[in-house]
Amino acid sequence: MMGRRLQVEDHLRHFSHHPLDDDELALVTDAIHPSRIQQAIVLSGSHRAAFLCEKGKLFILLAQDGNGQASTRLRSIPGRQISHIAVRSARMHNPALISGAVALVLESDPRTVVSFDSWRPMIAWLADKETKHNPTHSVTFAAPIVKLTSKFAALDEAGTVHVWGEKKTVQPPDPPDEDEAFQEAWNRHVLFDDPIQQWPSRLPEVLDYTPRSLPLPPIKKLATGGCYNVGVSRSGQLFVWGYRSDKWPEIAAVNQMSGVEFKEAVIMTDTGRRLPIVDAAAGRAHVVALAADGSLWSAGDGLNGQLGIGTRQFGLCTGNRTTDIAANDTGEEFAVYWQKVDTAGILGDGGRREAVFCEGDHTLIVVRNNTA
């Protein structure tokens, strides 16, 4: 799971479902200047977070219990320099896996992606120890990788998007120690943040690491989210893809992940003019697009205000075209079609929109002040 890192005047801010607290952030910034941090990754259990810094250096924030007292330290991982790293949570019920599978690209070999089913063998491999584990999978692409995302999607220098990491049909059996008592403990952990005293001895989920290229024109912007993924082509086309289902409302423009052809998501103005897109982002179940004229457009789940359109209800339908609000856990706050974001009401008229980011049910808009 990726965490959104925000640098404000040399301070580090972080939000996610389980954000780092002020003491943990202070520990990180005491050792690493925020301007050096290129990427922040939320982990689980004793491994709270990882930070990829300039010159390919990786740091892990560790929480430890010693003599009945909790302590936190920042560990520097020695070894090879990393240019890109991504995590895919494969088993959240096992901190020993440290958030599951991980993929990375080394600065010394920008065309190759290596994947591991958990972090411990990856760390040993980076350090080049005698006890190192070989990668679970390694693949070399025709062009250097310029972006790697948490959904295990890679964008190469030629503009091709490669995806991998789907769950295989046959999975390891559930452990015998996963019982009702653990389920109760897990519920208390989710509801009240009570610590888990003993975790089931789970094995990693088995993933398919064989990559495939998506049927897209050359892409310049790539973002992956929970339900949806977005790409912006070099010519300003917008594409949205994910997994379609008739059981809940979906963005009308989404392409089926396994499709052999992707259709462009066209956004039109009230006057019928097609808008070229310069940036796009995907959250848990919503997407936001920035047009060349500075207008912002959103679609998907808006229950928490992430669409930027205020309180608005839509008549939602299930697969048989009948309204069934009870079947939709987000009520009617879901925009199937593109909605124009009220940027004047949110941002005022003094800034130029330059980029958008989404994380979970949050939307961030980068604005340049024209009066400066």
TrEMBL record:
Record's GO cellular component terms: cytoplasm
Gene3D superfamilies in the cross-refs: Regulator of chromosome condensation 1/beta-lactamase-inhibitor protein II
Cross-referenced InterPro entries: Ran_GTPase-activating (IPR051553), RCC1/BLIP-II (IPR009091), Reg_chr_condens (IPR000408)
RCC repeats (start-end): 236-293
Pfam families: RCC1_2
Superkingdom in the source lineage: Eukaryota
Segments passing through the bilayer: none
Any one GO molecular function term: guanyl-nucleotide exchange factor activity
Name listed for the protein in its UniProt record: Uncharacterized protein
Organismal lineage: Eukaryota, Fungi, Dikarya, Ascomycota, Pezizomycotina
